[in-house]
Structure formats: structure tokens, C-alpha cells
Amino acid sequence: MRVIIVGAGITGTAHAWMAVERGHEVVHLDRELEARGATVRNFGLVWVSGRSAPELEITLRSRVLWEEIGAMVPDVGFRANGSITLLRNDSEVAVAREVAAREDADRRGFHLLTRDQVAEINPALQGEYLAGLHCTSDAAVESRQAMPALRTYLARSGRYTFVPGVEAREIDGTSVRDDAGTVHSGDCVVLCPGATHRGLLHEVFGGLPVRRVRLQMMQTAPLGQQLTTSIADGDSLRYYPGFTGPALDELRRSEPQRSVAAEHGMQLLCVQRLHGGLTIGDTHEYDEPFTFDVDEDPYAHLVEVTESLLGRPLPPIQRRWAGVYSQCTEPDRIVCRESVSEGVWAVTGPGGRGMTLGPAIAEESAELMGW
Asked: CA dist 118 to 59, 238, 291, Å?
């Protein structure tokens, strides 16, 4: 088959990967010269720990696929570093104890650690916490270099062509006309527009059940020591559905979230880049129109929390940014995957799970699309 893919973020690139791996030819279009959306504005986390029970199978499958991809494309930067959620009060410890006792705890790689055990696994963590929830299944990739690395690998097949800097304007059958007037014809068209919900996606597919979510993040200069795992704080227990249960209900009653964190829908996630700097976030804003500037209060909160867990000052902040991702609004769907006619599909809305689930979502698409 000849597959035309529109959108060079993780969703579109993962679909290109699956098509080429199955022996097909891919023409890959993007309006930008490089991915500039949520794909490069995220942590690069392959995050198993907090996923809900219905998401667990596809998440574990994607974790396997990322490890396989990382072995073939080292520049993706895959590493099975795991994570530790640092617990600062008895109510947070109770949530961790509850989830570590569940039937799926072994599959997630959950282990409740004492403070001394946390420091043994990750010596950089010398700050204020009581215990830690270790998740050995979590992993990370380098979000800013993964897409170019994957495209370079695909190009060696001789069956992959990347066409950057063009905007898809029209779909006729299974052909796509771009804004330069070039028609790209194939046997299948897959639109992976990320958070661009208007334009061609809306024209062809109408109103899909998706919304946009805005976040703020930042990155530091090199830390000067190794952070052997990714880290999260107890606010992540409130955010991820995998921690839902009686102990979380009690946490919410007994330990109100700090006002700045509650106002901005915050949790702390922190992962060390291969160059030594820390990517730190994040916030969640759901109501449009989004603000066009960044708010300093959430950044100050994230710095304070990270320094308290590390037990040392952070290196200078080198970059701050905002990003917007697409989230399916139907709770029983992991992604919005629709077809309007034979061979014409749209795939969008994985929410903040795009980097984690991209390969497995694309693998499912390949089966549905007959690749």
C-alpha cells in the first residue's frame, strides 16, 4: 500500500513507523519543518504507573514497543529508568500502600519504598519526604530528538518520504492536495493533526469529541549529578486515574492541595534529559480561550517542590514554554480514531498520553486499517 500521513508529531510518526515496518510506502506531510506541538513540549515519559485499569494493557504494550524501537534507533534515547513518586505525608503513603497491594501491582512494577530505600535507588533525592512509590515499568525517551531520529531510520528503508513545510488542504478519495498544489495519491490517508481541530480535520470529519488542554513546563541547566529515576510528587496521585480508591478519597479530604497547585491543575513530574538538565512540569488549563502568556506562580511552585525533594537548589532555569495537546472527551476511549470513507482516517486526542501510547495506538490502527 501507499499511505499518506498528515502530521509529524508522535501520533503521525508512529503510524508511519507501523506502515513502513509492515512493508508499505509512506508519504508524510507536515505544515512545519519540524514537529513543534505537544510531541516536543512534553517530558518524553513512557508512563505506566498512573494509568487506569482499562488503559493498562495498551500502555504495557506500548512500553514493549518503545523498548524495541529504542534498540533499533538509539538516538530516540529510550531508557528503562523507572520512576519514584515521593510521598510527603501519611495520607499519600496510604494511597501508595493501597495501590501497591492491588492485583496489578506486579504488572505495573509497584513497590512501596522506605526513605532509605528511595535514597539507595536514587541518591540524588536527599530532601523532604517520608517514602516513595517505585514503578519499575516507567521509562523515558528524548522527546526533542525522537521524531527526527525515527524519520532518519525510516528513510533508510527507501519507502518513506517526509514532505515538510506544506499544509494539507483537501482530501479527494485517498489523495491529498497540499497548499503548493501538489497532489499526493495513495491507498490510505491518515490525518494526525494533534491539537489543530479546525481546518481540514473539521472540514472532513466535522465536530469530533475532542478538546484542547494547555500546559506549562520548564527545563534547567545540567544538574551535575545523575537522577537515576524520573520523579513525581504526591499531587500526581490526585491527577492520574490509576490511583483512584478509598485512600485517595481520604487524601483529598484530609490534605487539601496547595492553592496554586489546585488553581492550575498541577502535579510535579521531573525527568532528567541525557544532557543532564531536568524537564519539570506541569499545569493543566482546560477552558478556552487560553491565555497567551505564561504564569510565574506555577513555575515558582514547581521549583520549590523540586528543590524540597532533591534537598538542594536547582540549577538555573534555561527554558520555559507552554504547549497544547488534544484530548478525547469520551472517557471510555483512549484515542479518537474515526473513518469517514474507505481508506480515510483521523487519529487524534490521546491527551497527555501521546508519547506513552503512540506506538501502541498506531499498532491498533494498522490492524483496523488493514496494513
From this structure: 25, 21, 38
End-to-end CA distance of the chain: 8
Rounded CA separation 273/125 (Å) = 17
CA distance 38 to 78: 18
Q: How many CA atoms lie within 13 A of 328 on its CB side?
A: 16
Identity of the residue numbered 120: E
β-pairing, 210-220 vs 175-178, is unpaired
The CATH superfamily assigned to 1-79+140-209+331-371 is FAD/NAD(P)-binding domain (3.50.50.60)
- Alpha-carbon distance of 205 to 197, in angstroms, equals 10
Residue 320 grid cell: 520555559
Matching CATH number, 83-136+210-328, of 3.30.930.10, 3.40.50.300, 3.30.9.10, 3.60.20.10: 3.30.9.10
Edge-to-edge strand ranges of the sheet holding 175-178: 168-172, 175-178, 183-185
Angle between helices 354-368 and 56-72 (to 10 degrees): 100
Tell me which amino acid residue 215 is: L
205-227 tens-digit pLDDT: 999 999 999 999 999 999 999 99
Q: Give per-residue pLDDT as tens, 158-190.
A: 999 999 999 999 999 999 999 999 999 999 999
Distance CA 24, CA 183 (A): 19
HEC readout, 247-259: HHHHHHHHCCCCH
The pTM of the whole model exceeds 0.85: yes
**Cα 255 from Cα 267, distance rounded (Å):** 15
C-alpha cell at 301: 511552585
